[in-house]
Amino acid sequence: MKHRLFIVLLALSAMACGCGGATQKRGGNRQLPTNQSGVSYYTFDIVAELPHSTKSYTQGFEFADGLFWEGTGGNGSSRLQVVNPLTGEATKSISLASKYFGEGITLLGDEVFQLTWREGKAFVYDRQTLRKVREFDYQGEGWGLTTDGKVLYMSDGSDRITLRDPKTFRSLGEIKVTLGGHKVLNINELEWIGGEIWANIYLTTDIIRIDPATGKVVGIIDLSTLQSPADVSYTTDVLNGIAHDPATGRVWLTGKNWNKVYQVEIIKK
User: Is residue 31 part of a domain?
Assistant: First the structure.
């Protein structure tokens, strides 16, 4: 989400994380604490670099059927698109009406789910044709979306992740995300990986790994050096996009208007 630059990153009243000063566009000066007890810390190696359209304001990112599935944002430029990883070009795409600001996506069975930011609408598409088959209403904002293969997990920019029934979109409960007993705010794009929920935190270059049973952050991945300066332009925005292939364990990362998708290997520090 690029929408609320005034939001405080973390409600960590007992932790001083040195987050003062002006916010950089990519959030590089705002990170999570690096020495929290009970949390594992990770870095990365870049395995491969793939092209990404700098016109895609990435809000949701998935890998399935050998392709990237991407939801983009912006009134008048929101899309759901299927992208060839080797070329970065969309092979199929559907545009949202200009009144909708597209948000997170996830695939479940033969369907693709897509949130909207403040419009309170979730759209469901046929996976093969991208034809809209139904829609749901919900209260509050929509940010990120993922699934464990049974239910949906939805973020709204707060510390909450709401569980939803994919057939009705009814709330099934919520997870309160904490780090060291304190709320973690600005939870954004989500991905279910190995029984954990991985989440981008808006305005940071960190990805958190959440235990869905407790809501506790069990790992933090530092991606502050993922992009080289040569790949950053005035339109480059924040890190936001996690895709995973359960069959191979591969992980890809990208961001809003980034020029590349990075396949990475996550390494424990």
Answer: no
The total number of residues written for the chain in this structure: 269
- Tell me what pLDDT residue 30 has: 56
Assess contact for 93 and 84: CB atoms under 8 A. Answer: no
Rounded Cα gap, residues 128 and 112, in angstroms: 9
- pLDDT tens digits, 72-123: 999 999 999 999 999 999 999 999 999 999 999 999 999 999 999 999 999 9
Residue 152 included in any domain? yes
| Number of structural domains found in the chain | 1
Quick one: how far is CA 237 from the chain centroid? 13
**Which tokens is 186 given?**
């600005």
Joined tokens for residue 161: 């992740």
Model confidence, pTM: 0.89
User: Among 133, 202, 149, 210, which Cα is nearest to 179's?
Assistant: 210
Joined together, the tokens standing for residue 195 give 């029984």
Q: Domain range for residue 149? A: 37-268
Task: Read off the CATH number of the domain in which 83 is found.
Answer: 2.120.10.30
Paired residues of 82 in beta bridges: 69, 92
Look-up: residue for tokens 């630059």? Answer: 5
Q: Is residue 5 part of a domain?
A: no
The span from the CA of 269 to the CA of 265, in Å, is: 13
Residue 21 lies in a domain: no
Tokens 């996506």 belong to 105
What value does the mean pLDDT of the chain take? 91
Q: Identify whether the C-beta of residue 220 lies closer than 8 Å to the C-beta of residue 207.
A: yes
